[in-house]
Structure formats: C-alpha cells, structure tokens
Design a protein that fits this description.
alpha/beta, single chain, 6-stranded mixed beta sheet, 35% helix, 182 residues
C-alpha cells in the first residue's frame, strides 16, 4: 500500500487493488480505498480495522470527519493503527453509480424522507427506493454483481495481509458486526 496524507489531522490514505471477481482472481481488478491513523512503529502491536455499518457507508469519510479515528487510536493507547475502508462499490472505492449526476442523486434523496414517519409517506418511500435496484443494476457496471458481503470479507482479508498483520483485529458497528462475523 502506498500511503499518502489525506487530512490535516494526520490520516493517510491508500488504494488497494483487489480482484473484481474472486472466481477469477487473476482477472479484472477494482479499488478499495483505506484511511489510516498510524501509530509509532516502536509501540505498534497491530492494526484495528473499523467498519461503521451500512452497507454502503464510507468508512474513509466517517473515520476522518467524525474524529473517531483519533479517538480510537488514543483509547488504544497508541498501540494499534486505526484503519477504515470504503467497501467495494462504495464511496471512493470504484463506487456504483445509480444516477447520471450528483445533482440527480441529491434530488432523488431530497424528494423522500430518510425514514417514512407518517403513514402517507410509506408507499411513496418504498416505491421510490424499490426503483433503485433496477436503476443501479441496469447501468451495466461490472462492480454491481460483485458487491456481496462475501466479496467485502475477502477484500478485508487481503487488506489485513497488505498491512502485514497475521490476524484480523476488527471493530464493526451494525452491519459491520455481521461483516466481521462473516
């Protein structure tokens, strides 16, 4: 991994190439982007990987913008690098595109509540969000059929190897806990 500064508070980022299709590991590749808060190599005992849930949440953005990376590094007493990643097809990792423009995506999301609270919001909400699968899958993007939990777990194992850890140290929230168990 080639780490480069990516935030003013000391985070470094890198992109790892992983197989697009694990049934053909020598074939096409896709990128998985990571953010890391490194510790002093003299005190380091490993790396803790973090997934904030989703699926579909950018770990890179969440780790840096929330301050969680710095907080966790301090709680771990500077013994673990803290790494989050954008799962394949999400955020900075060759994202799946369901809209022609960012404006179209923003308009789609603004037209509906984040969660339907009132009865009259439920049917429009479910109709709109049910339209996303054909919208996303119908665009012919190779990543669309390679975004399973199993694919992300295989990526995570490659990332663990890329940072030089023999075993995975992991912290997962919500869907991230399922990812960790898998």
């Amino acid at each position: 991994l080639n780490w480069n500064p990516c935030s003013p508070d000391g985070a470094v980022c890198a992109a790892a190439q992983v197989p697009l299709d694990y049934a053909d590991p020598a074939g096409a590749k896709t990128l998985v982007v990571l953010a890391r808060y490194p510790v002093n190599p003299a005190t380091k005992v490993g790396t803790v990987f973090v997934n904030f849930g989703g699926p579909g949440i950018s770990g890179v953005t969440r780790l840096i913008q929330s301050g969680f990376g710095l907080t966790l590094r301090a709680l771990l007493q500077g013994r673990f690098d803290v790494v989050a990643f954008d799962p394949r097809g999400v955020g900075y990792s060759d994202p799946l595109q369901c809209f022609d423009t960012e404006g179209a995506r923003t308009a789609f999301r603004a037209a509906h509540p984040i969660f339907p609270y009132f009865d009259e919001q439920e049917r429009p909400y479910f109709d709109a969000y049910s339209s996303l699968a054909p919208r996303c899958l119908g665009r012919g993007q190779a990543i669309a059929v390679h975004m399973s939990t199993g694919d992300v777990v295989r990526d995570l194992d490659l990332l663990r190897q890329a940072v030089g850890d023999e075993r995975l140290t992991y912290l997962g929230f919500s869907y991230g806990s399922y990812l960790g168990n898998t």
